[in-house]
Amino acid sequence: MDQSVVVGLDNGGNCNNATVLDASGRFLVDRLCETSSRVQQGPEVAVEALVEALEHVLELTGVAATSVRAVGLDTPGPASAEGVISSKGATNFSQPAWRGFDIRGALEARLGLPVVYHNDANAAALYAHHVHFGAEAARRSSVSAIVGTGLGGGVIEAGQVVRGAAGMAGELGHVHIPMHGLLAEGQPLPRCNCGFAGDAESIASLTGIANNLLPFWLTRFDGHELGRVGSVQEAAKLVRGYGERGDPLALRIFEQQAMALGRLFTIAANFTDPNAYFLGGGVVEATPRFREWFLAKVREHTALREEQVRVATFALVPDLDMAGARGVAIAALGTLQA
Ligand SMILES: [Zn+2]
Q1: Mean residue pLDDT across the chain
Q2: How far apart are CA 102 and CA 18, in angstroms?
């Protein structure tokens, strides 16, 4: 029997999650396997923390280090397609030593093994694609939108992540979307942290709720409880819970988000005409009734042609907390089979 495996490492602000994938495509870990990521202590410490995460998951699965053929790594962005952290820094990589740091190259040198890199949204998109299409994955295309603090995305064509010339493909959050009929009367044009106004993330993200949607809708629901929460950031995190309980203000916010996502998918439909549209993020963890309502709303606002309706599917990104590690493990296995 072939003992070859690959390891997937998902690097986050607090934790690294690790997984092991064998040559037959079977994951040997069925839950989160987390160790501290120590990214706040700078790149050198963080690279050692990634090595510990790898050693820990091998110990847990009883796999020998000599069986590992390649490693997949994902981190939050912004970073280049080759795993170089943005020269302007990034939310999770605030220490100056991180600026322009080649985390993929550093881990590869430390391990003496090939390391394949994707940003976390692309990794999750790749995982969703492979879970959904299985053996057909290499012949299918998909687009994923992952709604979190920001709006991450990934475009998969023929089973592969589309990286783009500068490594910036799939930045769905910063695609401008039409606002006509989306904004309510008197609602200001929403602004994104990237400097754009009226892009998808300015609405469909937690930041969009805090900066744009909630402040506006509180003016239309005078005396709403959410207006008495300490800060708008705190209040924004509570909106989903209110939505699950059918609160009218929260539902207006989620309807605007669903409309923005539907319009984003409409643009995707005319660019790559994918087989599947995947939706991920906090909403996946919501109650089944609420997430089905939200997915149906997104679908309702995606304008597909008749021919597209017949072949396209809409689905949620599964196992979201494990999707990053699993996605890069799939990418690493793919490089061995290529
Ligand atoms: Zn933006």
Answers
A1: 94
A2: 20
